[in-house]
Amino acid sequence: MRETKKTGGELIVEALKANGVRRVACVPGESYLAVLDALHDTDIEVLVCRQEGGAAMMADAWGRLTGEPGICMVTRGPGATNASAGLHVAMQDSIPMILFIGQVQRDAREREAFQEVEFRRAFTEFAKWVGEIDDARRIPEFVTRAFAVATSGRPGPVVLTLPEDMLRDEVEAPDARPFTPVESHPGPAPVKAFEELLAKAERPLVILGGTRWTEKAVADFQSFASRYKLPVGCSFRRQMLFDHTHPNYAGDVGIGINPALAKEVREADLIVLLGGRFSEMPSSGYTLMDIPYPKQKLVHVYPDPDELGRVYRPDLAIAAAPADFVAALAGLSPVGEPVWAARTEAMHAAYLAWSTPPATGPGSVQMGPIMEWLEANTAADAIFTNGAGNYATWVHRFHRFRRFATQAAPASGSMGYGLPAAVAAKQLFPDREVICFAGDGCFMMHGQEFATAIRYNLPIITVVVNNGIYGTIRMHQEREYPGRVSATGLTNPDFAQLARAYGGYGETVEKTEDFAGAFKRARASGKPAIIEIKLDPEAITPTRTLSQIRDKA
Residues 188, 214: contact at Cβ < 8 Å? Predict the structure, then answer.
């Protein structure tokens, strides 16, 4: 036990330091002033954000790119409910994150005090665990548990609420210690069973997904796939898990899947789901595998045993994190040439054709040549971020991810994610280029975090694809209610001028040939930048226009 009493705020910060926290995203509030005061005397970097949803999405991005829990602090009531947008992303995407919420004082509880919310009831669906620290002496216990829960099994967010008066209490408490990571090593029996199933297969396919991957695990699995000449796909918005230029890469299994790849999934005789849940988006609305009994033999490797068999009944269930399972494959090698080698080559060729962007389209700006230019002029370690919308198709289909930790995008489909994620990524990796793609609707969800990039001198480049509509919803509207446009039009600011107003760099692109120069100038400026692309709303997808969708309907 310590001899000197400390405040609850000081104990929170000491627990964060003990667990290796280097950065916190926050919007300040009077409910946790004691924590902010304690942060003043540490080397923990505090990013002051402009809206709690953006702050929570920054914490999610840190967790997504590092595997360590991202930390976010917000105040009670509206601060916390704003943050719930990022909390939902972390929950659906299995990202380790801890959200600290300043709470009303203890003697005012259950009176509907100022900005009071009972988060242990309200946030149950948004987090793995929601706890409240009523006694400052228990802070080391609660914070250590929070780190363990956020990172173990299926990772996810944890919420800890901090009553304002508790943070001012001076108490004696044990020195905080770092949490103990929980690893899961598959035994020799399931690894042997996996090897036997693979040996009997003729049309196998591996689909990588989920979290709890490491750079080494990604590289080691790529070596394993090379030895076996296995075709490998990546689940929706998990494309950074396999080098797209590798001859074994078959494509992404997500929204708008390559029909040739969808056919291969359905006709495979062995599917290996490694790390992911194969939820609604990667499974094309649960159509690629039957529920609960897939026609394909199924090996499901997942770190949470409660997930195994919950939706799909596997022939072989292995409760292990991806990194642990991949480590167990190190000694495996095929006997002779795999019978599926030619199929793997054909699947990669189909991917290359599918991921080659079209050269033409409606309007004076063509996104295909722009994507071609970006592919030729960005480094393999450049980080791409985005939120949700039809514009994201240009990144997910036509950008060829090469390395681990180069993608931050919400599998949950949350708009507004790309910009705060880019700010977080640049703060985490200041020497790497960070490119955010956003639609005009998506950007305006959390575009105010551009001010955060300015404040901390984080020179991200944001490409705003402006077509003046909520594009995805308009596409669905034309398909389901052709010609009856309702609630999907937008009025936007001049995004390039907006960037300059913040103190950043801005340009507008209205012709395809102007993009390269604009991007080079944005890069050379050394400032946070916005490149606004004026895209014809008819260019709603790479292959079909709005009019074509309407006419078909």
Answer: no
Q: State which of 171, 205, 226 marks the end of a domain.
A: 171
What residue type is assigned to position 543 of the chain?
A: T
Q: What is the dihedral of CA 472, 474, 478, 480, to 10 degrees?
A: 70
CATH number of the CATH domain containing 163? 3.40.50.970
Q: Is the pLDDT of residue 3 over 80?
A: no
What is the model's pLDDT at position 1? 46
Q: Does residue 308 sit within a domain?
A: yes
Residue 278: CB atoms within 10 A of its CB come to 24
pLDDT in tens, 423-437: 999 999 999 999 999
d(CA 352, CA 418): 26
Amino acid at 407: Q
Q: Which residues of 140-161 are buried (b: 16+ CB within 10 A; e: fewer)?
A: bbbbbbbbbbbbbbbbbbbbbb
Q: Say whether both 218 and 245 belong to one domain.
A: yes
Rounded Cα–Cα distance for residues 512 and 524 (Å): 20
Phi, psi of 277 (to 5 degrees): -95, -15
Calpha distance 418→301 (Å, rounded): 29
Cα(475)–Cα(545) distance, integer angstroms: 9
What is the DSSP code (8-state) at residue 69? Answer: P
What torsion, rounded to 10 degrees, do the Cα atoms 9, 15, 17, 22 define? -80
Bridge partner residues of 507 (DSSP): 531
Domain boundary among 144, 171, 198: 171
Do 206 and 115 share a structural domain? no
How is residue 108 written in tokens? 């005012």
Residues 415 and 442 reside in one and the same domain = yes
453, 460 Cβ separation under 8 angstroms: yes
Give CA torsion, residues 364, 368, 370, 376, to 10 deg: -150
The structure's pTM equals 0.97
Q: Which two tokens stand for residue 445?
A: 């969800």
Asked if residues 94 and 67 have their Cβ atoms less than 8 Å apart, the reply is no
Domain of residue 231, residue span: 188-353
Residue 241 phi, psi (nearest 5): -85, -5
Q: Are 420 and 85 in contact (CB under 8 A)?
A: no
CB atoms within 10 A of CB 358: 14
pLDDT of residue 532: 98
Distance CA 75, CA 81 (A): 9
Q: Is the pLDDT confidence value at 8 over 90? A: yes
- The structure tokens listed for 52 are 């709690």
Number of domains in the chain: 3
Sequence-distant (6+) residues with CB within 8 A of 248 are 222, 225, 226, 229, 230, 231, 232, 242, 344, 348
The Cα 363–Cα 159 span in angstroms is 47
Helices (H) and strands (E) in the chain, counts: 21, 20
Q: Do 36 and 94 share a domain, yes or no? A: yes
